[in-house]
Amino acid sequence: MERIESRKNPLCVTVRRLAADGASRREQGLFVCDSPKLLSEILAWRPELLSAVITSRPEALPSMPETVRAYEVSAELMEYLSPAKTPQGTLALCRLLPTAPPEKLTGQRYLALDAVQDPGNVGTILRTADALGCEGVFLLPGCADPFSPKTVRATMGALVRLPVWQCTARTLSALLKAASLPLIGAALRADTRALKDTDLTRGCIAIGSEGRGLGPEMLETCDATVRIPMRAHCESLNAAAAATILLWESCRHGAAIGEGL
After folding, report:
1. Helix (H, G, I), strand (E, B) or coil at 101
2. Are 168 and 221 in contact (CB under 8 A)?
3. CA atoms 148, 152, 154, 158: torsion sign
4. Quick count: other Cβ atoms within 10 Å of Cβ 164?
5. Dist. CA 171–CA 32, nearest whole Å
6. Contact in structure between 39 and 63 (CB atoms under 8 Å)
């Protein structure tokens, strides 16, 4: 294991840029993971993606392929490098996952996010979608970068287990129509259905941004819309909370996923 002492080391400069800038991530094809848990998930599910590791606690590292170059840094330097407020002693540089949508959809249950900008919300939704048996998540324009450190951290490993695709509303609509799957948006319009009267066992659920909900293009594309019952004085729910409720309903009435569902 090599040791790095200087902030000016090329690897340190790269880590800082990747953690701060989406354009750098796309240009270099890399992203940063900042915990032993995430590193373990990447090694378990996508071992070929690991490019480099930086750690101040070598004994905490999981077993890694010989092709991975490991570097030891001081706690002080780790604090400088880590995008987390409280570094956990491990950073990993990983290759970006492909996010181009598939040519056709072969599953039954999907989720689409329209301009959900908060990385914590996007990461939490991906984690929930993975847990509740969603077969893929579409990120439409305006969504938080799935590979930003905050998003990656919030997914708790779901990013490397669950297919995540980036596309336009038009591309999503074409894929769903070809697979005979409905697009059901969480929104209010003249034909909105109550949740209890809506079949969510197959199709794609669409969740809009925290501030404005689904955009006009997505609303026009939806085959149906659904409302979540709530008290009259409450206007809306957090995007992650709304997604969780709808995914749970889809899972509860569909195939069981694990014990107790």
Report:
1. coil
2. no
3. positive
4. 26
5. 29
6. no
Decide: 210 and 117 in contact? Cβ < 8 Å.
yes
Q: Which residues pair with 231 in a beta bridge?
A: none
Asked if residues 72 and 1 have their Cβ atoms less than 8 Å apart, the reply is yes
Instruction: Give the chain's end-to-end CA distance (angstroms, integer).
Output: 45
Q: In terms of Cα–Cα distance, which of 171, 151, 181, 163 is closest to 218?
A: 171
Q: Which helix (H) or strand (E) holds 184?
A: strand 183-186
pTM of this structure: 0.91
CA distance 169 to 115: 11
Residue where the block lists tokens 């750098």: 24
Q: Do 69 and 52 contact (CB within 8 A), yes or no?
A: yes
Token digits of residue 122: 């996007």
Output the tens digit of pLDDT for each of the chain's 261 residues. Answer: 789 999 999 999 999 999 999 999 999 999 999 888 888 888 888 767 677 677 756 566 677 788 888 888 898 999 999 999 888 888 989 999 999 999 999 999 999 999 999 999 999 999 999 999 999 999 999 999 999 999 999 999 999 999 999 999 999 999 999 999 999 999 877 788 888 888 899 999 999 987 888 999 999 999 999 988 888 877 778 899 999 999 999 887 665 555 444
User: Phi and psi of 180, rounded to 5°?
Assistant: 55, 40
Name which of 110, 143, 141 is nearest 243 in CA terms. Answer: 110
Residue of 195, 193, 191, 136 lying closest to 166 (CA atoms): 136
**188 Cβ contact list (under 8 Å, min separation 6):** 225, 227
pLDDT at 70: 84
Q: What are phi and psi of 34, to 5 degrees?
A: -125, 40
Name the residue among 159, 163, 160, 156 with its Cα closest to residue 136.
Answer: 163
